[in-house]
Amino acid sequence: MSHTPPGGTAGSGLRRELKTRHLTMMGLGSAIGAGLFLGTGVGIQAAGPAVVLAYVVAGAITVLVMQMLAEMVAARPSSGTFSTYAEDAFGPWAGFAVGWLYWFMMIMIMAVEITGASAIIAGWLGISPWIPALSAIAIFTVINFAAVKNYGEFEFWFALLKVMVIIAFLVLGTLLWLGVLPGSGFVGFDNVSAAGFMPNGWGGVATALLAVAFAFGGIEMVTIAAAESREPEIAVHSAIRSIIWRIGVFYVGSVLLIALLLPYDAIGAASDASESPFTAVLHLAGIPGAVGIMEAVIAVALLSACNTQIYGSSRFLHDLALRGDAPAYFRATDSRGVPVRGVVVSVLFGLVAVGLQYWNPPGLLAFLLNAVGGCLVVIWFAIIFSFLRLHPRLAQGGELTQVRMWAPRVLPWVTAAVVAALVVLMLTTPDGRLQVLAVTVVVAVITTLGLVVTKRKDAR
Fold first, then answer.
1. Mean pLDDT for the stretch of residues 139-147
2. C-alpha angle with apex 322: 320 to 325, nearest 5 degrees?
3. Which CATH superfamily is domain 20-454 in?
4. I need a labelling partner for 77 at 20 to 30 A (CA). Which of 124, 228, 362, 455 fits?
């Protein structure tokens, strides 16, 4: 595959107008969602303060997978990213399957995010949830119609709001723990001592690992956007590196403070903002309107992530069309390099998915959402094995840049083994087994379609 020409990605009208800071915030925007604000309690409940170990393992997996992906992106920039590399490594059927699987995942995640945000906004205004859902989708469609540099600027500031909130929480939590705030005393390690560092043993840490394994999902969005950055090699490396350490600080720091500040038996799963451990910490600090503040934060987090999903899914569809895996209709870009048709169809399917949530046919939605839960594992495997196949070719062809995977003959296999162990762990729980079953069915259907479509394409 040839290197991308200066004007845009190979054979497309996409423009290279994104800056490194745009990429960084887009990755953060995708990875910081309701999972952080509502889901952290599940991991802490399972493992206690030892949940930090689960985050370290999940973070390590993400770092290694993203470094492999960064090497390939720097060498061969493509908005199809790991879908393109799967095709390069294993043939058209693999590119088709991985591409459409990820597109399906983004559309379903978009629907979950917009449904969650609209429910919060509807509660504030006393209106039906479909009104804010439709309004938000309409606004994001217009934003995604903008030239990519304008989209990048909007998402930069949108995601920055979430980052500022988390930084404020870390500062507030630290002051509260130290007993510096009025009416508070030094907490120290009293709550940890009362419950123990690992109250449920290694089994609890394993359970927590399942709860937090996909917390860092969304960082891969950076590699989709890298094809529209001015210097993909430099931008993707810098963005991934800064995202990983920031996400690590935000997630681990927040979880650690929650475990230190709140009694173990007071932390659990949260279905809404009022039950969030973040809200409980704000109550401890005596901040009025804590529930309302967290509702606003969660709504912004969901809306920002939804906006990024629309961007990513439209670029993925455009790239699939360029490679003949989607209708040629979606190859077109407008004069500013925006794949408008891709944006429209992604939004339409997002609305269908939102409609599914309101209709809620028995079993179907739960099945699809469970499939989404396992999609990221399949994507990880696709990246790892594509890297193992392509790395020797990139080295032999002189395509490697300064962005390299560490110990390329050893660490990819170690990563694959850890991810495989995670799948085995998933099979030990009812929810995990359902996820594995659902994603296996979805992958089987998409792969079969890929084999049929690409065989017909070859015949033509």
1. 90
2. 40
3. Amino acid/polyamine transporter I (1.20.1740.10)
4. 455
Query: DSSP string covering 414-434, please?
Result: HHHHHHHHHHHHHTTSHHHHH
List C-alpha distances in Å: 118 to 28, 127, 377, 387.
22, 10, 29, 40
| 3 state DSSP class of 229 | strand
Amino acid at 198: M
The rounded distance, in Å, linking the Cα atoms of 322 and 396 is 27
How far, in whole angstroms, is CA 277 from its chain's centroid? 22
Overall average pLDDT of the 76-104 stretch:
92
| Cα distance between residue 399 and residue 100, in whole Å | 27
Q: CA-to-CA distance for 391 and 71, rounded, in angstroms?
A: 9
CA 118 from chain center: how many Å?
20
Domain limits of the chain?
20-454
Query: To which residue do tokens 């994603």 refer?
Result: 439
Question: Residue 134 phi/psi, 5° resolution?
Answer: -65, -40
For residue 225, give Cα distances in angstroms to 27, 232, 308, 313, 422: 9, 9, 10, 11, 28
Q: What are phi and psi of 409, to 5 degrees?
A: -90, -10
Ranking 263-267, 326-330, 370-374, 449-453 by mean pLDDT, the lowest is: 370-374
- Rounded average pLDDT over 187-206: 88
Residue 19's nearest CA partner among 150, 201, 111, 182 is 150
Asked if residue 31 lies in contact with residue 228, where contact means CB atoms within 8 angstroms, the answer is no
Phi and psi at residue 277, in whole multiples of 5°? -60, -25
Structure tokens at 233: 């090699």
| pTM for this prediction | 0.87
CA 230 – CA 272 distance, rounded (Å): 40
Distance of CA 276 to the CA centre of its chain: 21
Residue 261: C-alpha distances to residues 37, 179, 270, 351, 442 (Å): 16, 11, 17, 40, 42
Given a contact cutoff of 8 angstroms between Cβ atoms, the answer to whether 201 and 53 are in contact is no
